[in-house]
Design a protein that fits this description.
The structure is a single chain. The protein is α/β, with parallel strands linked by helices. It has two domains: 4-134, HUPs (Rossmann fold, 3-Layer(aba) Sandwich), CATH 3.40.50.620; 146-282, Rossmann fold (3-Layer(aba) Sandwich). Helix content is 39%, strand content 19%. Helix 8 (266-274) links the parallel strand 9 (246-252) and strand 10. The radius of gyration is 21 Å and the shape is elongated. The model has no long low-confidence stretch (mean pLDDT 85). This is Nucleotide-binding universal stress UspA family protein. Keywords: ATP-binding, Nucleotide-binding. One of its GO terms (molecular function) is ATP binding. InterPro entries: Rossmann-like_a/b/a_fold, Universal_stress_UspA, UspA.
Length: 296
């Protein structure tokens, strides 16, 4: 049974923010917390004194992370583990008990000029369960902030809708659905203007299509307040702009377009670099809304 939220820990401030976010989310979901430190060092081959030094360091690091988790949610079950494998491998290794993974946007390593660290990117790219990447900008949700979800009609998009509606129902949060795309015309002209007068019936048809995608989810979750925007803009820019006032952005790992051999689509890739709130990446295939709850 998948009853565990796995959190990557490396002692950095970003990973401790991820631990705090995960503790709150796991408590709301009724999950236990597993804090994992992945070490690429082959500790068993080290001299004994050095090996003990590493083990003491890992123990202090994980104790600090546990204290941060308990400070957020005192009642949540927390365990910790050291795995002697690179963290990007240790975090995505198959574990039937793991329902979700949470990582900080950046850890201790990597190049300081990069927005996202390599571990977070690789975990978001390859994990089989939903991954939430928590950045330093605003790890705690703003009061009244919506959950923003990208809508594109793809199988990955339906999985993102399933995740977003579930989160909103759990947190009593608003859902803000955004469909965004840029309109191309003749290369000599550039992009078409986005005013409704230029879009004509095609713009209205797009809005009806988006409303049709959302309709069964709204029936399945009648208590979730839903708003939607159709924006004629670059999807990364539209979703990143909405993330300024959001508590969470949810997207599928891949959308309708892009190269099929890439693990992440271009929109998800862009949001990992530009979202201003925690971002959940969902890799599941197509999802269908649950049956609407019947009144008692």
């Amino acid at each position: 049974m998948a009853n565990t939220m796995l959190v990557g820990v490396d002692g950095s401030a970003a990973s401790l923010l991820a631990v705090e976010w995960a503790a709150c989310d796991a408590a709301a979901r009724g999950l236990r917390l597993l804090l994992l430190y992945g070490s690429p060092l082959p500790a068993a081959r080290q001299p004994l004194e050095r090996q003990r030094g590493y083990e003491e360091y890992y123990d202090r690091l994980l104790r600090t992370a546990e204290e941060h988790a308990k400070a957020c949610e005192a009642s949540i079950p927390v365990t910790s583990e050291v795995v002697y494998d690179p963290p990007e491998h240790a975090l995505v290794a198959p574990r039937p008990e793991v329902a979700r993974i949470v990582v900080g946007l950046r850890g201790r390593g990597g190049f300081p000029g990069l927005k996202i660290g390599s571990v977070a990117y690789k975990v978001a790219s390859h994990a089989d369960v939903p991954v939430t990447v928590v950045g330093p900008e605003r790890p705690t949700p703003p009061r009244g902030g919506a959950v923003v979800v990208g809508v594109d009609g793809s199988p990955g998009g339906s999985a993102a809708l399933a995740e977003a509606f579930e989160v909103c129902a759990m947190r009593n949060a608003r859902l803000h659905a955004i469909h965004a795309e840029r309109l191309f015309t003749d290369p000599m002209v550039g992009y078409l203007p986005s005013e409704p007068a230029y879009l004509g019936p095609w713009g209205a048809e797009t809005e009806r299509t988006v409303d049709g995608i959302l309709a069964p989810w709204k029936r399945a979750y009648p208590d979730v307040a839903v708003s939607r925007n159709v924006e004629w803009d670059d999807p990364v820019h539209a979703l990143a702009t909405a993330s300024r006032d959001a508590q969470l952005v949810v997207v599928g790992a891949r959308g309708r377009r892009g190269l099929p051999y890439l693990a992440l689509g271009s929109v998800t890739h862009g949001l990992l670099h530009h979202a201003l709130c925690p971002l959940t990446v969902v890799r599941r295939g197509a999802a269908v809304p649950p049956e609407p709850q019947q009144p008692a």
